[in-house]
Amino acid sequence: MDPGEENPTYFDESFKSTFGSLLSKNYFAYILFGYAGCIITVILFVIWRMRDYNRPDPSLMEYIDDEPRQRPTRANRHQTQARAGPVERAETVGGVRRRRRDGRGRNQQEVERQREEEVLDESGSEGEALPPAPVAGEGKMGAKKLRKLQEKEERRQMRQEMEIERAERKREQAEKEAMQKKLDELKKIEEEKKAEEEKKIQEEKERKEHEEYLKLKEMFSVDDEGQAAITSEEQSQNLLQEFVQYIKDTKVVLLEDLASHFGMRTQQAIDRVHDMLKDEIITGVIDDRGKFIYI
After folding, report:
1. For the segment 169-179, what is each residue's pLDDT rounded down to a tens digit?
2. Alpha-carbon distance 7 to 65, whole Å?
3. Which distant-in-sequence residues (6+ apart) come within 8 Å of 227 by Cβ?
4. Where are the transmembrane segments (predicted)?
5. Could you say which of 26, 44, 107, 216 is the most buried, measured as most Cβ atoms within 10 Å of its Cβ?
6. In the CATH scheme, what is the code of domain 251-294?
Protein backbone atom coordinates (compact mmCIF):
# COMPACT_ATOMS: atom_id res chain seq x y z
CA MET A 1 0.00 0.00 0.00
CA ASP A 2 1.28 3.45 -0.95
CA PRO A 3 2.13 5.50 2.16
CA GLY A 4 0.84 8.65 0.48
CA GLU A 5 -2.62 7.25 0.16
CA GLU A 6 -5.04 7.60 3.04
CA ASN A 7 -6.68 4.59 4.59
CA PRO A 8 -10.51 4.97 4.36
CA THR A 9 -11.03 2.49 7.14
CA TYR A 10 -9.07 4.67 9.48
CA PHE A 11 -11.33 7.68 8.88
CA ASP A 12 -14.48 5.66 9.32
CA GLU A 13 -13.33 4.34 12.64
CA SER A 14 -12.19 7.79 13.77
CA PHE A 15 -15.57 9.36 12.80
CA LYS A 16 -17.52 6.70 14.59
CA SER A 17 -15.42 7.03 17.72
CA THR A 18 -15.89 10.81 17.76
CA PHE A 19 -19.54 11.25 16.68
CA GLY A 20 -20.95 7.82 17.39
CA SER A 21 -22.65 8.92 20.61
CA LEU A 22 -24.12 11.99 18.90
CA LEU A 23 -25.82 9.90 16.25
CA SER A 24 -27.79 7.89 18.74
CA LYS A 25 -31.63 7.84 18.61
CA ASN A 26 -32.06 9.60 21.96
CA TYR A 27 -30.09 12.57 20.77
CA PHE A 28 -32.29 12.99 17.70
CA ALA A 29 -35.38 12.82 19.89
CA TYR A 30 -34.04 15.64 22.06
CA ILE A 31 -33.42 17.74 18.98
CA LEU A 32 -36.98 17.19 17.73
CA PHE A 33 -38.46 18.12 21.10
CA GLY A 34 -36.39 21.27 21.19
CA TYR A 35 -37.58 22.38 17.75
CA ALA A 36 -41.19 21.63 18.67
CA GLY A 37 -40.90 23.65 21.87
CA CYS A 38 -39.49 26.62 19.98
CA ILE A 39 -42.28 26.49 17.41
CA ILE A 40 -45.01 26.30 20.08
CA THR A 41 -43.44 29.21 21.96
CA VAL A 42 -43.41 31.35 18.81
CA ILE A 43 -47.06 30.51 18.05
CA LEU A 44 -48.20 31.40 21.58
CA PHE A 45 -46.27 34.65 21.47
CA VAL A 46 -47.88 35.65 18.15
CA ILE A 47 -51.38 34.82 19.47
CA TRP A 48 -50.77 36.83 22.62
CA ARG A 49 -49.58 39.82 20.62
CA MET A 50 -52.55 39.74 18.26
CA ARG A 51 -55.30 39.29 20.86
CA ASP A 52 -56.05 43.05 20.96
CA TYR A 53 -55.48 43.65 17.26
CA ASN A 54 -59.15 44.32 16.40
CA ARG A 55 -59.96 46.19 19.59
CA PRO A 56 -60.30 49.99 19.11
CA ASP A 57 -57.79 52.15 20.90
CA PRO A 58 -59.62 54.61 23.21
CA SER A 59 -56.90 57.21 22.76
CA LEU A 60 -57.68 57.44 18.99
CA MET A 61 -61.47 57.59 19.25
CA GLU A 62 -61.63 61.37 19.56
CA TYR A 63 -59.70 61.79 16.30
CA ILE A 64 -61.70 59.36 14.16
CA ASP A 65 -65.14 60.20 15.51
CA ASP A 66 -66.93 62.33 12.88
CA GLU A 67 -70.29 62.46 14.68
CA PRO A 68 -71.03 65.37 17.05
CA ARG A 69 -70.41 64.40 20.65
CA GLN A 70 -73.17 64.85 23.18
CA ARG A 71 -72.64 66.73 26.36
CA PRO A 72 -71.64 64.13 28.93
CA THR A 73 -74.38 63.54 31.46
CA ARG A 74 -74.66 61.06 34.22
CA ALA A 75 -77.08 58.82 32.30
CA ASN A 76 -75.32 58.63 28.92
CA ARG A 77 -71.87 58.54 30.54
CA HIS A 78 -72.75 55.31 32.31
CA GLN A 79 -74.33 53.95 29.13
CA THR A 80 -71.18 54.81 27.18
CA GLN A 81 -68.99 53.16 29.79
CA ALA A 82 -71.23 50.09 29.73
CA ARG A 83 -70.93 49.84 25.94
CA ALA A 84 -67.18 50.55 25.86
CA GLY A 85 -66.49 47.78 28.34
CA PRO A 86 -63.96 47.77 31.17
CA VAL A 87 -61.11 50.26 31.14
CA GLU A 88 -57.79 48.86 29.98
CA ARG A 89 -54.53 50.09 31.39
CA ALA A 90 -51.12 49.65 29.82
CA GLU A 91 -48.18 48.68 31.90
CA THR A 92 -44.66 47.52 31.17
CA VAL A 93 -43.44 44.36 32.82
CA GLY A 94 -39.98 42.97 32.02
CA GLY A 95 -39.57 45.30 29.03
CA VAL A 96 -42.79 44.03 27.39
CA ARG A 97 -45.81 46.30 27.00
CA ARG A 98 -48.94 44.63 28.36
CA ARG A 99 -52.55 45.62 28.92
CA ARG A 100 -54.63 44.67 31.89
CA ARG A 101 -58.22 45.26 32.68
CA ASP A 102 -59.20 47.53 35.48
CA GLY A 103 -61.55 45.17 37.29
CA ARG A 104 -62.07 47.50 40.23
CA GLY A 105 -63.25 50.37 38.02
CA ARG A 106 -65.50 48.00 36.09
CA ASN A 107 -67.14 46.72 39.28
CA GLN A 108 -67.67 50.25 40.54
CA GLN A 109 -69.29 51.30 37.26
CA GLU A 110 -71.55 48.25 37.32
CA VAL A 111 -72.66 49.01 40.91
CA GLU A 112 -73.42 52.66 40.07
CA ARG A 113 -75.35 51.69 36.95
CA GLN A 114 -77.46 49.14 38.83
CA ARG A 115 -78.13 51.70 41.55
CA GLU A 116 -79.37 54.23 38.98
CA GLU A 117 -81.59 51.59 37.37
CA GLU A 118 -83.15 50.76 40.75
CA VAL A 119 -83.80 54.46 41.42
CA LEU A 120 -85.42 54.87 38.00
CA ASP A 121 -87.58 51.77 38.50
CA GLU A 122 -88.78 52.91 41.93
CA SER A 123 -89.46 56.58 41.19
CA GLY A 124 -90.71 56.25 37.62
CA SER A 125 -90.13 60.00 37.20
CA GLU A 126 -87.71 59.67 34.32
CA GLY A 127 -90.21 57.91 32.04
CA GLU A 128 -88.84 55.72 29.31
CA ALA A 129 -85.16 54.86 29.11
CA LEU A 130 -82.99 57.29 27.19
CA PRO A 131 -81.61 56.02 23.89
CA PRO A 132 -77.96 54.98 24.13
CA ALA A 133 -75.48 57.67 23.21
CA PRO A 134 -73.51 57.04 20.05
CA VAL A 135 -70.05 55.65 20.74
CA ALA A 136 -67.17 55.91 18.34
CA GLY A 137 -65.96 52.60 17.05
CA GLU A 138 -69.30 50.93 17.77
CA GLY A 139 -69.21 49.28 14.37
CA LYS A 140 -65.98 47.57 15.37
CA MET A 141 -67.44 46.25 18.60
CA GLY A 142 -67.65 42.50 18.74
CA ALA A 143 -71.02 40.95 17.88
CA LYS A 144 -70.97 38.88 21.05
CA LYS A 145 -70.47 41.91 23.26
CA LEU A 146 -73.19 43.86 21.45
CA ARG A 147 -75.60 40.95 21.82
CA LYS A 148 -74.90 40.81 25.54
CA LEU A 149 -75.65 44.51 25.87
CA GLN A 150 -78.89 44.11 23.94
CA GLU A 151 -79.98 41.18 26.11
CA LYS A 152 -79.16 43.17 29.21
CA GLU A 153 -81.23 46.11 27.98
CA GLU A 154 -84.13 43.79 27.17
CA ARG A 155 -84.00 42.31 30.65
CA ARG A 156 -84.00 45.79 32.16
CA GLN A 157 -87.01 46.85 30.10
CA MET A 158 -88.83 43.63 30.97
CA ARG A 159 -88.13 44.18 34.67
CA GLN A 160 -89.39 47.76 34.40
CA GLU A 161 -92.58 46.61 32.66
CA MET A 162 -93.17 44.01 35.35
CA GLU A 163 -92.74 46.67 38.04
CA ILE A 164 -95.25 48.93 36.28
CA GLU A 165 -97.73 46.08 35.88
CA ARG A 166 -97.33 45.12 39.53
CA ALA A 167 -97.93 48.71 40.64
CA GLU A 168 -101.02 48.91 38.39
CA ARG A 169 -102.47 45.71 39.85
CA LYS A 170 -101.79 46.98 43.35
CA ARG A 171 -103.52 50.29 42.59
CA GLU A 172 -106.55 48.54 41.09
CA GLN A 173 -106.79 46.23 44.10
CA ALA A 174 -106.65 49.21 46.47
CA GLU A 175 -109.39 51.01 44.51
CA LYS A 176 -111.52 47.87 44.49
CA GLU A 177 -111.14 47.42 48.24
CA ALA A 178 -111.96 51.09 48.87
CA MET A 179 -115.08 50.84 46.68
CA GLN A 180 -116.20 47.64 48.41
CA LYS A 181 -115.67 49.24 51.81
CA LYS A 182 -117.73 52.25 50.77
CA LEU A 183 -120.54 50.00 49.48
CA ASP A 184 -120.51 48.05 52.75
CA GLU A 185 -120.79 51.26 54.73
CA LEU A 186 -123.70 52.48 52.59
CA LYS A 187 -125.42 49.11 52.93
CA LYS A 188 -124.96 49.20 56.68
CA ILE A 189 -126.41 52.71 56.87
CA GLU A 190 -129.40 51.64 54.76
CA GLU A 191 -130.01 48.61 56.96
CA GLU A 192 -129.83 50.72 60.11
CA LYS A 193 -132.20 53.27 58.59
CA LYS A 194 -134.63 50.55 57.51
CA ALA A 195 -134.50 48.92 60.93
CA GLU A 196 -135.17 52.29 62.56
CA GLU A 197 -138.15 52.91 60.30
CA GLU A 198 -139.54 49.44 60.98
CA LYS A 199 -139.08 50.02 64.68
CA LYS A 200 -140.96 53.31 64.46
CA ILE A 201 -143.77 51.67 62.46
CA GLN A 202 -144.04 48.86 65.01
CA GLU A 203 -144.07 51.32 67.90
CA GLU A 204 -146.73 53.41 66.16
CA LYS A 205 -148.82 50.32 65.52
CA GLU A 206 -148.54 49.22 69.13
CA ARG A 207 -149.44 52.71 70.29
CA LYS A 208 -152.56 52.79 68.11
CA GLU A 209 -153.60 49.35 69.26
CA HIS A 210 -153.16 50.43 72.86
CA GLU A 211 -155.22 53.58 72.30
CA GLU A 212 -157.91 51.54 70.59
CA TYR A 213 -157.82 49.12 73.45
CA LEU A 214 -158.33 51.97 75.93
CA LYS A 215 -161.22 53.32 73.90
CA LEU A 216 -162.93 49.95 73.71
CA LYS A 217 -162.30 49.38 77.39
CA GLU A 218 -163.94 52.68 78.17
CA MET A 219 -166.77 51.94 75.75
CA PHE A 220 -167.54 48.58 77.31
CA SER A 221 -167.41 49.86 80.89
CA VAL A 222 -170.47 50.02 83.12
CA ASP A 223 -172.77 52.87 82.08
CA ASP A 224 -175.92 54.34 83.48
CA GLU A 225 -178.09 51.64 81.86
CA GLY A 226 -176.49 48.87 83.95
CA GLN A 227 -174.50 47.14 81.23
CA ALA A 228 -171.88 44.64 82.30
CA ALA A 229 -168.37 46.01 82.85
CA ILE A 230 -165.17 44.44 81.55
CA THR A 231 -162.93 43.93 84.52
CA SER A 232 -159.77 42.50 83.04
CA GLU A 233 -157.36 43.81 80.45
CA GLU A 234 -157.18 40.43 78.76
CA GLN A 235 -160.94 40.39 78.23
CA SER A 236 -160.78 43.89 76.73
CA GLN A 237 -158.07 42.84 74.31
CA ASN A 238 -160.04 39.76 73.30
CA LEU A 239 -163.12 41.91 72.78
CA LEU A 240 -161.16 44.26 70.49
CA GLN A 241 -159.99 41.34 68.40
CA GLU A 242 -163.54 39.96 68.23
CA PHE A 243 -164.85 43.38 67.14
CA VAL A 244 -162.32 43.61 64.27
CA GLN A 245 -162.70 39.95 63.29
CA TYR A 246 -166.51 40.27 63.19
CA ILE A 247 -166.25 43.15 60.70
CA LYS A 248 -163.74 41.23 58.55
CA ASP A 249 -165.88 38.08 58.51
CA THR A 250 -169.16 39.88 57.81
CA LYS A 251 -167.71 42.10 55.05
CA VAL A 252 -170.94 44.14 54.89
CA VAL A 253 -172.49 44.91 58.26
CA LEU A 254 -175.18 47.31 59.39
CA LEU A 255 -173.80 49.57 62.10
CA GLU A 256 -176.93 49.16 64.20
CA ASP A 257 -176.52 45.38 64.10
CA LEU A 258 -172.85 45.80 65.02
CA ALA A 259 -173.74 47.91 68.05
CA SER A 260 -176.46 45.47 69.08
CA HIS A 261 -174.13 42.48 68.72
CA PHE A 262 -171.57 43.96 71.13
CA GLY A 263 -174.06 45.62 73.49
CA MET A 264 -173.26 49.29 72.77
CA ARG A 265 -175.01 52.32 71.43
CA THR A 266 -175.13 52.89 67.68
CA GLN A 267 -173.21 56.18 67.86
CA GLN A 268 -170.48 54.54 69.89
CA ALA A 269 -170.13 51.80 67.25
CA ILE A 270 -169.96 54.43 64.48
CA ASP A 271 -167.28 56.39 66.37
CA ARG A 272 -165.22 53.25 66.97
CA VAL A 273 -165.40 52.30 63.29
CA HIS A 274 -164.23 55.81 62.28
CA ASP A 275 -161.32 55.60 64.74
CA MET A 276 -160.26 52.22 63.36
CA LEU A 277 -160.40 53.56 59.80
CA LYS A 278 -158.28 56.54 60.84
CA ASP A 279 -155.72 54.33 62.57
CA GLU A 280 -155.74 51.95 59.56
CA ILE A 281 -156.70 48.98 61.71
CA ILE A 282 -159.43 48.17 59.19
CA THR A 283 -160.14 49.45 55.69
CA GLY A 284 -163.54 50.08 54.15
CA VAL A 285 -166.33 52.65 53.57
CA ILE A 286 -169.64 53.60 55.20
CA ASP A 287 -172.50 54.13 52.78
CA ASP A 288 -175.56 56.39 53.13
CA ARG A 289 -177.72 53.55 54.48
CA GLY A 290 -175.53 53.11 57.55
CA LYS A 291 -173.70 50.01 56.36
CA PHE A 292 -169.98 49.40 56.66
CA ILE A 293 -168.37 47.64 53.69
CA TYR A 294 -165.04 46.03 54.56
CA ILE A 295 -162.41 46.09 51.83
Report:
1. 999 999 999 99
2. 81
3. 220, 263
4. 27-48
5. 216
6. 1.10.10.10
